[in-house]
Amino acid sequence: MPLVIWLVVGFASGVLAYAFLNGGYGLFGDVVGGMVGAVGGNWLFEALRIYIPLDGLLSHILVAIAGAWILVILLRATRPRRRYAWSR
Known about the structure:
Elements: H1 3-20, H2 26-47, H3 57-78
Helix pairs in contact: 1-2, 1-3, 2-3
């Protein structure tokens, strides 16, 4: 699958992650995370020999969405929390 399609699917996944997961790194950060996650999800699924039992573009879209959302959630879980002076 061409890299452009992965990036487009990652863009859409990042926008959805931003919308449904209540922000995080902002729209730009979530979109970039979605794009990287889509490409990384493709690589990971191929490396682990995990195949989605669907034909054509739909299986690639599901892998890209899974990779993008996993990366965005991991990035949010590992980012440092803000500490405010009054919350000590």
